[in-house]
Design a protein that fits this description.
By secondary structure, the protein is an alpha/beta fold. It is built from ten helices and eight strands.
Length: 228
Amino acid sequence: MVQNNILMLFDIDGTLVQGAECHYKAYIEGVKKFYGMEDYVHSVNAAGKSDKLILQEILTLGGLTTAEIQKDFQNCLDFMADYYLKNVQCEDIHVFEGTVELLEELQRKNVLLGLVTGNLEPIAHAKLGRAGLDSYFSFGGFGSDNADRSLMVKKALNIAKNQFGFKGDKIFVVGDTPRDVEAAQAYNLKTIAVATGMYSVKELVDCGADYVVENFKNTDKIMEILYK
């Protein structure tokens, strides 16, 4: 059982890594196969959203009814995960500077690390595996669990407490979008927003993040936030 008092829950895309092109292609191929559509995938702002929510929005933009969407919805998600796993070796994923050093330092300090990501769980682990980061994270809340990001946070919290014995009161949700911040605020959790995605420092400050950093290059600054 973990005997620490700090938990950090990380988003993946735009926070730890960027450049997961095969994830985008999984949407294109899945929507084409199950719904006969080739447009609209590029029309959705995916930042901070779950794979389930993104797929729902794509199909709604395509004019499909709820019944038409639901008919093959899970089949499409399963196909997307399978497609990604089969093609992940082609990914040219970029790990943001300072990320590995930060995760190493957090492990040395015995900080419990988890995920809160809109990625379907198989995609999340395959993506992090390709990036060399999967060994840092053993649990989380995923887009395959819920479309609602706040419920992903709830699941990750429950696992941390029930399976890892986390009893601390310092919990930080780390992400690059206002949606990450909003999901954490639902449980009165602290937020560290990083401006490595599509949102600026100002936008992340304005959305109510407790702490905002430009990137993870300054490990000392992150550690200072955690141990205030």
